[in-house]
Design brief:
The complex is a heterodimer. Chain A is α/β, with parallel strands linked by helices. In chain A, 36% of the residues lie in helices and 24% in strands. Chain A has a 5-stranded parallel beta sheet with strand order 5-6-7-3-8, sandwiched between helices. Chain A is globular and about 45 Å long. Chain B has a two-stranded antiparallel ribbon with strand order 1-2. The termini of chain B are far apart. The chains are: A alpha/beta, B mainly alpha. At the A-B interface, helix 3, strand 5, helix 4 and helix 6 of A face helix 6 of B.
């Protein structure tokens, strides 16, 4: 399924973050999203996930927009992963259980998030610890693994390896190769490695 | 016994002097509450006296239109008062509180008059005090529930957004917060129900006993009222929390925290 965005515009206060922006992500491609801080990369990702509103433009997956899909269904197919995961009261295992239930309600199954994160060096015991007791890198891997385990059609990744060491970063990049992603990164070497296309925000 | 001993203006003057104790405490500890205390005291005197004088013709005229007009004013004021106690606001918050309390107080007052067997069912001598007591408690629950719900949604945007991003509907994403807010709204009445009779003698029971009613009969009345109040709080809190969630998410399941303004 192709994610297509056409003529997107978003204005915050007096500032136009982007206007006339179009992009397209074909299955299996990774579109790298670059730009200086404050250029609207996160906002664009959130808008693609239908979490933030746009001032103009159209976003479709397989030719249909989120309203036609049903917004919760859209977000099941187009999964946004924030740079800093939300710190919930319980453990990542609790969160995983909740996400499994939500995903099942949307008619989809999950793969094994714990095994996936283990491949990125996240120990299994981290899943039963409290979110608050995990390091930034542990949280980032757990949250990313949960999102990937839902097997969405498109992943919207906001600097998914910003808190990881080079080994874990390489492992994440290897796991995500071949998936359909919009990937925000400040790291030009990473952009070279993972990207099949680039969109620059000014 | 033929009813309570009537109070004279002198009696009230003596009682008013007791407020001097509050004033003394405020001055001594530098609380700066003197002005508030004065305003609150004057409001107590004026509002309650006016109510007394207003109820005489309302009871005497015995017109449903007048009774419902008065109830409408009471619920409107309760809606405004509930929102004035919350830290955060959104457009349509007062109408939401109004609607929640109309549902809660309306449904329970109707059931109450039906149980008591009041004839006609809108008999002002029963309906107005009943609604007043129910509203007073529903007001506390609704304002606490809405205050907590708006605060939690504002402070947990990232958690709510994460659940939405995982494919939750707005109701699924708001559910833990709505539950916590509803719990907060219901705690005061649950506490009151536990302490009643052991520590506290509620105002209505006191009034009936002073008025010469048999204490057992007064107690039974109070039990009925407590249950009505508890049900009204549950309906009011539930409805107000749902309306708050409804107002702070849009139809496309997006959280809209910019709709909140902080005082």
């Amino acid at each position: 399924m192709t994610l297509q965005a056409t003529d997107l515009r978003r204005v915050v206060g007096e500032r136009t973050l982007f206007s006339g922006l179009s992009l397209q992500v074909e299955p299996g491609q990774t579109l790298v999203l670059r730009g200086p801080s404050g250029s609207g990369k996160t906002l664009l990702l959130r808008a693609l996930a239908w979490l933030d509103a746009l001032d103009a433009g159209q976003v479709t997956l397989d030719g249909r927009d989120a309203v036609a899909w049903g917004v919760p269904q859209w977000r099941t197919e187009v999964a946004y992963v924030a740079q800093s995961p939300a710190v919930f009261a319980g453990s990542p295992a609790d969160f995983l259980q909740l996400v499994k239930e939500l995903t099942a309600q949307r008619g989809r199954g999950c793969s094994d998030a714990i095994a996936l994160a283990a491949a990125w060096g996240l120990p299994t015991r981290a899943w039963s610890q409290r979110w608050a007791d995990l390091s930034g890198g542990e949280r980032q891997r757990a949250a990313l693994a949960v999102a990937v385990s839902r097997q969405p059609k498109v992943l919207l990744l906001d600097e998914p390896t910003s808190a990881l060491d080079p080994d874990a970063t390489a492992a994440v990049e290897a796991s995500l190769a071949g998936l359909t992603c919009v990937w925000v990164t400040h790291d030009s070497a990473q952009a070279q490695r993972v990207g099949t296309g680039v969109v620059e925000l000014a | 016994m033929t009813g309570p001993i009537a109070l004279t203006p002198l009696d009230l003057l003596v009682a008013a002097s007791l407020i001097g104790l509050n004033a003394a405490l405020s001055l001594w500890l530098g609380l700066g509450l003197e002005r508030k205390l004065l305003v609150a005291s004057v409001r107590t005197v004026v509002q309650l006296t006016l109510l007394g004088y207003l109820l005489v013709p309302v009871f005497a005229l015995h017109q449903p239109l007048i009774v419902f007009g008065m109830l409408a004013v009471m619920v409107t004021l309760a809606g405004r008062e509930a929102v004035s106690r919350t830290e955060r606001r959104f457009a349509g918050m007062v109408p939401s509180a109004f609607l929640a309390m109309t549902l809660g107080a309306g449904a329970t007052a109707l059931i109450g008059t039906a149980i008591i067997g009041v004839d006609p069912w809108w008999e002002p001598r029963y309906l107005i005090p009943l609604v007043g007591m129910i509203l007073g408690n529903a007001l506390t629950g609704v304002s606490l529930g809405m205050d907590r719900c708006t605060a939690l949604l504002d402070d947990n945007r990232d958690r709510v957004d994460t659940l939405l991003a995982m494919g939750a509907t707005r109701w699924e994403a708001a559910r833990p917060i709505a539950a916590e807010a509803a719990r907060t709204g219901m705690i005061p009445i649950l506490n009151a129900m536990s302490a009643v009779g052991l520590v506290t003698i509620p105002g209505m029971m006191t009034g009936q006993i002073l008025g010469g009613t048999d204490p057992v009969e007064a107690a039974l009345y109070q039990v009925l009222i407590m249950f009505l109040i508890a049900a009204a709080v549950a309906i009011g809190v539930g409805a107000s929390v749902m309306l708050t969630v409804r107002a702070l998410f849009d139809d496309e399941h997006r959280l809209r925290p910019e709709r909140l303004s902080k005082r």
